[in-house]
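We were asked to recover a plausible sequence for a given structure. The inputs and outputs are reproduced exactly as logged, with field labels preserved.

PROBLEM: sequence recovery
POSITIONS: 266
GIVEN STRUCTURE:
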């Protein structure tokens, strides 16, 4: 894909996400008709998840018919150029009227994240990252914090029922024991963006799906974060562990999480 073709995709998708954000926000503001259901224990679904994903799929198919699409709700097959969509990340927050949720769209080319957009409409925030072009929040450049010491760091550990509670509690215990302030906000995509803009110093999760991180990883990497080898194996289909942190915290957090990268960032 040429740089011009990538640029076209970046601008087109920013427009699409703005429309999708309005759609999601309309649902968020009418909570009585959210049609809340459960996909499983602690796994929420609302009518907005399906509506936002359908909207994005329909538009992407018209704009870029040769690109593949994978979505959290509708699935899909990987390809050389593939959009990976989480229509609502942080669905449990969304369903309960908490504003920490987002729409996440990432474009991968040959397995490498190229463009990431994360929009948090209820917060009025749009993060954008493009490989080699930096990362922004509402158009302003962002970078990771200068945290070097775990005893002053704020670390977010994501959680889902895919991980046994004892493994999660042990992880959180190691984080606290090392001196970190530990939090969990309920949106993996925003958790990565919060590292990108310095609101957190690290985000880690023992298993996370590709639609949760496809956008956030390129945003965080472009903001200067260390990111683990998430897309190295068949993570698009099966997910993987993820670690994203300031470069100086990599060693300590690899020890705490066990999520060790083979690659060197820089
Ligand atoms: C979940 C959130 C959560 C993360 C989980 C995800 P959902 O996605 O991103 O923060 O820890 O791994 O499954 O269910 O809100 O779309
Ligand atoms: Ca998600």
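RECOVERED SEQUENCE:
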């Amino acid at each position: 894909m040429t740089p011009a073709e990538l640029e076209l995709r970046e601008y087109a998708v920013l427009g699409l996400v703005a429309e999708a954000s309005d759609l999601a926000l309309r649902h968020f503001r009418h909570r009585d008709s959210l049609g809340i259901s459960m996909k499983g224990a602690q796994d929420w679904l609302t009518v907005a998840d399906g509506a936002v994903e359908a909207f994005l799929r329909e538009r992407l198919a018209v704009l870029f018919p040769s690109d593949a699409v994978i979505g959290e709700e509708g699935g899909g097959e990987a390809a050389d150029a593939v959009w990976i969509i989480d229509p609502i990340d942080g669905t449990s927050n969304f369903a309960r009227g908490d504003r920490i949720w987002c729409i996440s769209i990432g474009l991968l080319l040959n397995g490498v994240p190229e463009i990431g957009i994360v929009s948090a409409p209820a917060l009025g925030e749009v993060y954008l990252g493009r490989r080699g072009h930096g990362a922004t929040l509402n158009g302003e450049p962002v970078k990771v914090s200068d945290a070097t010491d775990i005893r002053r760091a704020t670390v977010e550990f994501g959680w889902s029922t895919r991980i046994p509670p004892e493994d999660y509690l042990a992880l959180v215990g190691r984080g606290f024991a090392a001196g970190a302030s530990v939090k969990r906000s309920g949106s993996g995509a925003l958790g990565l963006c919060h590292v990108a803009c310095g609101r957190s110093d690290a985000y880690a999760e023992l298993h996370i799906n590709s639609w949760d991180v496809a956008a956030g990883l390129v945003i965080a990497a472009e903001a200067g974060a260390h990111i683990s080898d998430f897309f190295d194996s068949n993570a698009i289909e099966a997910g993987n562990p993820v670690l994203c942190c300031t470069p100086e915290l990599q060693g300590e957090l690899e020890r705490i999480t066990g999520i060790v990268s083979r690659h060197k960032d820089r």
